[in-house]
Amino acid sequence: MTHLKFKRPYYANGFGKLADELFKGIENQIGSESTSQTPRVNISEDKDAFYLDFAAPGLNKEDFNIKVDKQMLTISAEAESTTETNFKRREFGYNKFSRSFELPISADQENISANYEAGILTVTVPKKPESKPRIISIN
Fold it and tell me: Which end of the chain is more exposed for a tag (fewer CB within 10 A), N or C?
């Protein structure tokens, strides 16, 4: 499973990279509520399925949207901030995010399932029966 990522323009090396590092997280330090952070994801696979585990604490299962269009799986969430806290620095809290993954041909798109428990969203993408390894007997 491939996470889609845009390439940086050739001029983004050098100063662009330095600027990214210098200003990383500045929106959180100045207290912006409109920031969009992306949760980390672990992707694993066994003989039956692919598993995507998103670290997204503080959300409710109703906040998530999971969509499959052609070979693209998109997981997004949007939650309204209900806290009136005046943060000096805020390093977690996902108000909204969206991540897209290109599904392999072996994925069974009709039977994708999801579970949200203890701040972890687990999306299970089963494999099609014909793509699973099987033993062929010799007659």
Answer: C
